[in-house]
Amino acid sequence: MNVSSMPTLRKVKIAGTGSYLPEKRLTNADLEKLVETNDEWIVQRTGMHERRVAADDQATSDLALEASKKAIESAGLTAQDIDMIMVGTVTPDTVFPSTACILQHKLGARMVPAFDLAAACSGFIYALSMARTQIASGAMNNILVVGAEVLTRVTNYEDRGSCILFGDGAGAAVLTPATDETSYIVDTHMAADGSGGEMLILPGGGSRHPATHETIDQKMHYMVIHGRAVFKEAVSTIVRLVDESLTRCHLQREDIKMVIPHQMNARIIESAASRLDIPMDKIFINLDKYGNTSAATIPIALDEAARQGVIQRGDLIALVTFGGGLTWGSSLIRY
Ligand code: COA
Fold first, then answer.
1. Is residue 65 situated within a structural domain?
2. Is there a single domain that holds both residue 277 and residue 235?
3. What is the pLDDT of residue 154?
4. CA 221 – CA 159 distance, rounded (Å)
5. Among 45, 51, 287, which residue has the most ligand 1 atoms within 8 Å of its CB, making it the best to mutate?
6. Is there a smaller number of Cβ atoms within 10 Å at the N or the C end of the chain?
7. What is the DSSP letter of 263?
8. Taking the alpha carbons of 101, 104, 106, 111 in that order, is the dihedral positive or negative?
9. Is 49 contained in some domain?
Protein backbone atom coordinates (compact mmCIF):
# COMPACT_ATOMS: atom_id res chain seq x y z
CA MET A 1 0.00 0.00 0.00
CA ASN A 2 1.37 3.39 -0.97
CA VAL A 3 0.22 6.70 0.39
CA SER A 4 2.23 9.25 -1.55
CA SER A 5 0.13 12.31 -1.95
CA MET A 6 -3.10 12.99 -0.16
CA PRO A 7 -4.05 16.43 -1.50
CA THR A 8 -7.51 16.53 0.05
CA LEU A 9 -6.22 15.34 3.42
CA ARG A 10 -4.18 16.98 6.15
CA LYS A 11 -0.40 16.77 6.09
CA VAL A 12 1.12 15.04 9.11
CA LYS A 13 4.45 15.61 10.84
CA ILE A 14 6.66 14.00 13.44
CA ALA A 15 6.34 16.55 16.23
CA GLY A 16 8.67 14.86 18.73
CA THR A 17 10.80 11.78 19.34
CA GLY A 18 12.23 9.92 22.31
CA SER A 19 14.24 6.80 23.02
CA TYR A 20 15.38 4.67 25.90
CA LEU A 21 18.13 2.09 26.17
CA PRO A 22 18.64 0.00 29.29
CA GLU A 23 21.97 0.48 31.01
CA LYS A 24 23.34 -3.05 31.06
CA ARG A 25 25.69 -3.84 28.16
CA LEU A 26 26.33 -7.19 26.44
CA THR A 27 29.67 -6.93 24.67
CA ASN A 28 31.27 -9.19 22.07
CA ALA A 29 33.69 -10.28 24.82
CA ASP A 30 30.68 -11.36 26.92
CA LEU A 31 29.35 -13.38 23.98
CA GLU A 32 32.74 -15.07 23.57
CA LYS A 33 32.09 -16.61 26.99
CA LEU A 34 28.70 -17.98 25.91
CA VAL A 35 29.27 -19.37 22.41
CA GLU A 36 32.13 -20.30 20.06
CA THR A 37 32.68 -16.86 18.53
CA ASN A 38 35.07 -13.94 18.67
CA ASP A 39 35.02 -10.17 18.56
CA GLU A 40 36.73 -9.99 15.16
CA TRP A 41 34.17 -12.29 13.50
CA ILE A 42 31.21 -10.42 14.97
CA VAL A 43 32.54 -6.98 14.05
CA GLN A 44 33.51 -8.06 10.54
CA ARG A 45 30.23 -9.88 9.80
CA THR A 46 27.79 -7.57 11.58
CA GLY A 47 29.44 -4.29 12.63
CA MET A 48 28.16 -4.86 16.16
CA HIS A 49 30.26 -4.25 19.29
CA GLU A 50 27.69 -4.33 22.06
CA ARG A 51 23.96 -4.43 22.79
CA ARG A 52 21.78 -3.31 25.70
CA VAL A 53 19.95 -5.73 27.99
CA ALA A 54 16.84 -4.91 30.01
CA ALA A 55 17.15 -5.26 33.79
CA ASP A 56 15.41 -8.29 35.32
CA ASP A 57 12.52 -6.14 36.50
CA GLN A 58 12.07 -4.34 33.18
CA ALA A 59 9.59 -5.49 30.53
CA THR A 60 8.87 -3.95 27.13
CA SER A 61 6.33 -1.46 28.50
CA ASP A 62 8.92 -0.08 30.94
CA LEU A 63 11.27 0.71 28.08
CA ALA A 64 8.37 2.06 26.00
CA LEU A 65 7.29 4.31 28.87
CA GLU A 66 10.65 6.10 29.12
CA ALA A 67 10.87 6.62 25.34
CA SER A 68 7.24 7.80 25.17
CA LYS A 69 7.62 10.35 27.98
CA LYS A 70 10.55 11.93 26.11
CA ALA A 71 8.69 11.91 22.77
CA ILE A 72 5.59 13.52 24.26
CA GLU A 73 7.71 16.15 25.98
CA SER A 74 9.69 16.94 22.84
CA ALA A 75 6.41 17.36 20.94
CA GLY A 76 5.41 19.99 23.54
CA LEU A 77 2.42 17.91 24.62
CA THR A 78 1.28 15.99 27.70
CA ALA A 79 -0.02 12.42 27.93
CA GLN A 80 -3.51 13.91 28.17
CA ASP A 81 -3.19 15.21 24.61
CA ILE A 82 -2.60 11.75 23.09
CA ASP A 83 -5.51 10.43 20.98
CA MET A 84 -4.18 6.93 20.23
CA ILE A 85 -1.27 4.68 21.23
CA MET A 86 0.29 2.10 18.93
CA VAL A 87 3.20 -0.11 19.98
CA GLY A 88 5.14 -2.08 17.38
CA THR A 89 6.57 -5.09 19.20
CA VAL A 90 7.06 -8.85 18.96
CA THR A 91 8.08 -9.07 22.62
CA PRO A 92 5.03 -7.71 24.44
CA ASP A 93 4.93 -7.83 28.25
CA THR A 94 2.04 -10.31 27.86
CA VAL A 95 0.06 -11.51 24.83
CA PHE A 96 -2.82 -9.62 26.41
CA PRO A 97 -3.31 -7.09 27.76
CA SER A 98 -1.33 -5.40 25.01
CA THR A 99 1.83 -3.48 25.81
CA ALA A 100 0.06 -0.40 24.44
CA CYS A 101 -2.70 -0.73 27.07
CA ILE A 102 -0.12 -1.19 29.82
CA LEU A 103 1.70 1.87 28.47
CA GLN A 104 -1.52 3.91 28.37
CA HIS A 105 -2.07 3.18 32.05
CA LYS A 106 1.54 3.95 33.03
CA LEU A 107 1.50 7.21 31.07
CA GLY A 108 -1.78 8.28 32.66
CA ALA A 109 -3.20 8.84 29.19
CA ARG A 110 -6.91 9.23 28.51
CA MET A 111 -9.09 6.22 27.60
CA VAL A 112 -8.01 6.36 23.97
CA PRO A 113 -7.51 3.38 21.64
CA ALA A 114 -4.31 1.49 22.43
CA PHE A 115 -3.03 -1.61 20.68
CA ASP A 116 0.08 -3.52 19.66
CA LEU A 117 1.13 -4.07 16.10
CA ALA A 118 3.00 -7.29 15.32
CA ALA A 119 5.02 -6.65 12.17
CA ALA A 120 8.43 -7.56 13.64
CA CYS A 121 11.17 -5.21 12.40
CA SER A 122 8.58 -3.28 10.38
CA GLY A 123 6.37 -2.58 13.40
CA PHE A 124 7.32 1.08 13.75
CA ILE A 125 7.02 1.88 10.04
CA TYR A 126 3.65 0.11 9.84
CA ALA A 127 2.42 2.05 12.88
CA LEU A 128 3.78 5.33 11.52
CA SER A 129 1.99 4.75 8.25
CA MET A 130 -1.33 3.94 9.93
CA ALA A 131 -1.06 6.84 12.38
CA ARG A 132 -0.41 9.17 9.48
CA THR A 133 -3.63 8.23 7.69
CA GLN A 134 -5.66 8.53 10.91
CA ILE A 135 -4.44 12.09 11.43
CA ALA A 136 -4.59 12.99 7.73
CA SER A 137 -8.25 11.98 7.63
CA GLY A 138 -9.03 14.31 10.53
CA ALA A 139 -10.11 11.44 12.78
CA MET A 140 -7.40 12.18 15.34
CA ASN A 141 -4.77 14.78 16.13
CA ASN A 142 -1.95 13.43 18.29
CA ILE A 143 -0.82 9.81 17.99
CA LEU A 144 1.94 8.14 19.98
CA VAL A 145 3.81 5.58 17.87
CA VAL A 146 6.29 3.33 19.66
CA GLY A 147 8.73 0.58 18.70
CA ALA A 148 9.85 -1.37 21.77
CA GLU A 149 11.46 -4.75 22.29
CA VAL A 150 13.12 -6.94 24.88
CA LEU A 151 14.58 -9.37 22.36
CA THR A 152 17.19 -10.76 24.75
CA ARG A 153 14.35 -12.73 26.43
CA VAL A 154 13.63 -14.62 23.19
CA THR A 155 17.23 -15.03 22.06
CA ASN A 156 18.92 -18.44 22.19
CA TYR A 157 22.34 -17.85 23.77
CA GLU A 158 23.44 -21.28 22.54
CA ASP A 159 22.98 -20.30 18.88
CA ARG A 160 26.00 -18.31 17.75
CA GLY A 161 24.35 -17.51 14.41
CA SER A 162 21.65 -15.39 16.05
CA CYS A 163 22.58 -14.46 19.64
CA ILE A 164 25.22 -11.99 18.48
CA LEU A 165 22.60 -9.86 16.74
CA PHE A 166 19.91 -8.80 19.17
CA GLY A 167 19.44 -6.24 21.93
CA ASP A 168 16.75 -4.39 23.90
CA GLY A 169 15.48 -0.82 23.52
CA ALA A 170 12.58 1.48 22.75
CA GLY A 171 11.94 4.47 20.53
CA ALA A 172 8.86 6.64 20.16
CA ALA A 173 7.45 9.42 18.02
CA VAL A 174 4.43 11.69 18.37
CA LEU A 175 2.62 12.48 15.14
CA THR A 176 0.47 15.59 14.80
CA PRO A 177 -1.06 17.63 11.97
CA ALA A 178 1.66 19.57 10.08
CA THR A 179 1.59 23.28 10.72
CA ASP A 180 3.59 24.39 7.67
CA GLU A 181 5.16 23.05 4.45
CA THR A 182 8.58 22.47 6.08
CA SER A 183 7.93 19.35 8.15
CA TYR A 184 5.65 16.56 6.99
CA ILE A 185 5.59 12.90 6.07
CA VAL A 186 5.89 12.79 2.29
CA ASP A 187 5.41 9.08 1.60
CA THR A 188 4.78 5.80 3.38
CA HIS A 189 4.77 2.28 2.06
CA MET A 190 4.20 -1.09 3.69
CA ALA A 191 3.90 -4.63 2.38
CA ALA A 192 4.30 -8.28 3.41
CA ASP A 193 4.98 -11.72 1.97
CA GLY A 194 3.79 -14.42 4.34
CA SER A 195 5.34 -17.15 2.19
CA GLY A 196 8.71 -16.21 3.73
CA GLY A 197 7.50 -16.53 7.32
CA GLU A 198 9.79 -19.43 8.21
CA MET A 199 12.88 -17.31 7.54
CA LEU A 200 12.44 -15.47 10.86
CA ILE A 201 10.25 -17.22 13.37
CA LEU A 202 9.56 -17.65 17.07
CA PRO A 203 7.85 -21.06 16.81
CA GLY A 204 6.71 -21.77 20.38
CA GLY A 205 4.20 -20.22 22.74
CA GLY A 206 1.47 -19.45 20.19
CA SER A 207 -1.63 -21.50 19.33
CA ARG A 208 0.37 -23.69 16.91
CA HIS A 209 2.77 -24.85 19.61
CA PRO A 210 1.47 -23.74 23.00
CA ALA A 211 4.08 -23.68 25.75
CA THR A 212 4.69 -27.16 27.19
CA HIS A 213 7.67 -28.80 28.83
CA GLU A 214 8.42 -30.23 25.40
CA THR A 215 8.43 -26.90 23.58
CA ILE A 216 10.69 -25.50 26.26
CA ASP A 217 13.05 -28.51 26.04
CA GLN A 218 13.18 -28.00 22.28
CA LYS A 219 13.90 -24.29 22.81
CA MET A 220 10.94 -23.31 20.67
CA HIS A 221 10.44 -20.17 22.74
CA TYR A 222 13.51 -18.63 21.09
CA MET A 223 13.86 -16.91 17.73
CA VAL A 224 15.08 -19.00 14.81
CA ILE A 225 16.62 -17.09 11.92
CA HIS A 226 17.93 -18.13 8.51
CA GLY A 227 20.50 -15.37 8.40
CA ARG A 228 21.97 -16.00 4.97
CA ALA A 229 18.58 -16.02 3.23
CA VAL A 230 17.41 -12.94 5.16
CA PHE A 231 20.64 -11.15 4.27
CA LYS A 232 20.12 -11.46 0.49
CA GLU A 233 16.44 -10.62 0.60
CA ALA A 234 17.05 -7.60 2.85
CA VAL A 235 19.64 -5.96 0.59
CA SER A 236 17.53 -6.11 -2.57
CA THR A 237 14.36 -5.04 -0.72
CA ILE A 238 16.02 -2.00 0.87
CA VAL A 239 17.37 -0.86 -2.50
CA ARG A 240 13.99 -1.33 -4.18
CA LEU A 241 12.08 0.45 -1.40
CA VAL A 242 14.27 3.56 -1.43
CA ASP A 243 14.19 3.77 -5.23
CA GLU A 244 10.45 3.24 -5.46
CA SER A 245 9.65 5.86 -2.82
CA LEU A 246 11.81 8.44 -4.61
CA THR A 247 10.11 7.64 -7.92
CA ARG A 248 6.64 7.99 -6.37
CA CYS A 249 7.57 11.43 -5.04
CA HIS A 250 9.53 12.60 -8.13
CA LEU A 251 12.66 13.02 -6.02
CA GLN A 252 16.30 12.03 -6.61
CA ARG A 253 18.73 10.08 -4.44
CA GLU A 254 20.75 13.31 -4.06
CA ASP A 255 17.75 14.97 -2.40
CA ILE A 256 18.04 12.63 0.59
CA LYS A 257 19.91 14.14 3.57
CA MET A 258 19.97 10.96 5.62
CA VAL A 259 18.83 7.35 5.28
CA ILE A 260 17.80 5.74 8.57
CA PRO A 261 17.68 2.01 7.86
CA HIS A 262 16.59 -0.80 10.15
CA GLN A 263 19.76 -1.70 12.09
CA MET A 264 20.06 -5.38 11.20
CA ASN A 265 23.65 -5.78 10.03
CA ALA A 266 26.24 -3.22 8.89
CA ARG A 267 27.14 -5.35 5.88
CA ILE A 268 23.50 -5.48 4.71
CA ILE A 269 23.26 -1.71 5.05
CA GLU A 270 26.62 -1.07 3.34
CA SER A 271 25.73 -3.37 0.48
CA ALA A 272 22.37 -1.64 -0.04
CA ALA A 273 24.00 1.81 0.19
CA SER A 274 26.60 0.84 -2.37
CA ARG A 275 23.94 -0.42 -4.79
CA LEU A 276 21.97 2.79 -4.26
CA ASP A 277 25.17 4.80 -4.74
CA ILE A 278 24.46 6.69 -1.51
CA PRO A 279 27.62 7.50 0.50
CA MET A 280 27.89 5.95 3.97
CA ASP A 281 28.07 9.39 5.61
CA LYS A 282 24.41 9.75 4.60
CA ILE A 283 23.43 6.51 6.29
CA PHE A 284 22.68 6.60 10.02
CA ILE A 285 24.18 3.67 11.91
CA ASN A 286 24.04 2.92 15.63
CA LEU A 287 23.93 -0.88 15.55
CA ASP A 288 27.53 -0.93 16.76
CA LYS A 289 26.16 0.22 20.17
CA TYR A 290 22.73 -1.42 20.33
CA GLY A 291 22.61 -4.35 17.87
CA ASN A 292 19.25 -5.14 16.28
CA THR A 293 16.31 -4.09 18.47
CA SER A 294 13.69 -5.03 15.83
CA ALA A 295 10.77 -2.54 15.82
CA ALA A 296 12.77 -0.17 18.02
CA THR A 297 15.82 0.42 15.79
CA ILE A 298 14.32 3.09 13.53
CA PRO A 299 12.67 5.26 16.21
CA ILE A 300 15.80 5.03 18.38
CA ALA A 301 17.98 6.05 15.43
CA LEU A 302 15.56 8.81 14.43
CA ASP A 303 15.63 10.22 17.95
CA GLU A 304 19.43 10.05 18.14
CA ALA A 305 19.83 11.68 14.72
CA ALA A 306 17.46 14.50 15.72
CA ARG A 307 19.01 15.08 19.15
CA GLN A 308 22.56 14.97 17.76
CA GLY A 309 21.59 17.55 15.12
CA VAL A 310 22.50 15.10 12.34
CA ILE A 311 19.08 15.86 10.85
CA GLN A 312 17.43 19.28 10.90
CA ARG A 313 13.82 20.32 10.43
CA GLY A 314 13.01 20.31 6.70
CA ASP A 315 15.68 17.74 5.74
CA LEU A 316 14.50 14.88 3.55
CA ILE A 317 15.09 11.60 5.34
CA ALA A 318 14.34 8.06 4.25
CA LEU A 319 13.31 5.36 6.72
CA VAL A 320 13.49 1.80 5.42
CA THR A 321 12.97 -1.59 7.01
CA PHE A 322 12.73 -5.31 6.34
CA GLY A 323 12.00 -8.18 8.71
CA GLY A 324 9.92 -11.03 10.04
CA GLY A 325 6.65 -11.86 8.34
CA LEU A 326 8.19 -11.24 5.94
CA THR A 327 7.30 -7.57 6.20
CA TRP A 328 8.88 -4.43 4.85
CA GLY A 329 8.18 -0.73 4.69
CA SER A 330 9.57 2.72 4.07
CA SER A 331 8.83 6.37 4.63
CA LEU A 332 10.14 9.59 3.14
CA ILE A 333 9.91 12.45 5.60
CA ARG A 334 10.58 16.17 5.46
CA TYR A 335 11.76 16.12 9.02
N1 COA B 1 30.97 -16.63 15.32
C2 COA B 1 31.80 -17.33 14.54
N3 COA B 1 31.39 -18.04 13.48
C4 COA B 1 30.08 -18.01 13.19
C5 COA B 1 29.16 -17.29 13.97
C6 COA B 1 29.64 -16.59 15.08
N7 COA B 1 28.86 -15.87 15.89
N8 COA B 1 27.93 -17.45 13.44
C9 COA B 1 28.06 -18.24 12.36
N10 COA B 1 29.37 -18.58 12.20
C11 COA B 1 29.95 -19.43 11.18
C12 COA B 1 28.93 -20.35 10.53
O13 COA B 1 28.79 -21.52 11.29
C14 COA B 1 29.57 -20.59 9.19
O15 COA B 1 30.58 -21.58 9.35
P16 COA B 1 30.81 -22.70 8.22
O17 COA B 1 31.18 -21.94 6.98
O18 COA B 1 31.91 -23.50 8.81
O19 COA B 1 29.49 -23.40 8.10
C20 COA B 1 30.27 -19.29 8.86
O21 COA B 1 30.42 -18.60 10.10
C22 COA B 1 29.50 -18.42 7.89
O23 COA B 1 28.16 -18.39 8.31
P24 COA B 1 27.07 -17.54 7.54
O25 COA B 1 25.74 -17.74 8.20
O26 COA B 1 27.16 -17.80 6.09
O27 COA B 1 27.60 -16.08 7.86
P28 COA B 1 27.10 -14.69 7.31
O29 COA B 1 28.23 -13.97 6.72
O30 COA B 1 25.85 -14.80 6.48
O31 COA B 1 26.71 -13.93 8.66
C32 COA B 1 24.75 -13.35 9.91
C33 COA B 1 25.70 -14.47 9.48
C34 COA B 1 23.63 -13.96 10.74
C35 COA B 1 25.53 -12.35 10.73
C36 COA B 1 24.17 -12.64 8.66
O37 COA B 1 23.73 -13.61 7.71
C38 COA B 1 22.99 -11.75 8.97
O39 COA B 1 23.13 -10.74 9.64
N40 COA B 1 21.80 -12.09 8.45
C41 COA B 1 20.56 -11.39 8.72
C42 COA B 1 20.24 -11.46 10.17
C43 COA B 1 18.77 -11.46 10.48
O44 COA B 1 18.02 -12.27 10.01
N45 COA B 1 18.35 -10.53 11.33
C46 COA B 1 17.02 -10.45 11.79
C47 COA B 1 16.11 -9.90 10.76
S48 COA B 1 15.91 -8.21 10.82
1. yes
2. yes
3. 98
4. 13
5. 45
6. N
7. -
8. negative
9. yes
**190 & 175 share domain:** no
- Note the pLDDT tens digit of each residue in 75-99: 999 999 999 999 999 999 999 999 9
Identify whether the C-beta of residue 203 lies closer than 8 Å to the C-beta of residue 224: yes
- Counting as low any pLDDT under 70, the low residues of the chain are 1-8
Please check whether residues 53 and 38 belong to one and the same domain.
yes
Residues whose CB is less than 8 angstroms from the CB of residue 64 and which lie 6 or more positions away in sequence, other chains included: 20, 87, 89, 99, 103, 146, 148, 170, 172
Range of the domain at 149: 2-181
Phi (first) and psi of residue 75, to 5 degrees: -85, -5
Q: Which of 34, 158, 231, 263 to mutate to test the pocket of ligand 1 (most atoms within 8 A of CB)?
A: 231
26 inside domain: yes
Q: Which of 150, 181, 212 is the last residue of a domain?
A: 181
- Cβ count within 10 A of residue 308: 10
Shared domain for 268 and 319, answered yes or no, is yes
Same domain, yes or no: 177 and 79: yes
Half-sphere CA count of 140, side-chain side, radius 13 A: 19
The Cα–Cα gap between 76 and 318 comes to 24
Distances (CA, A) of 64 to 55, 251, 262, 296: 14, 34, 18, 9
Is residue 258 a part of any domain in this protein?
A: yes
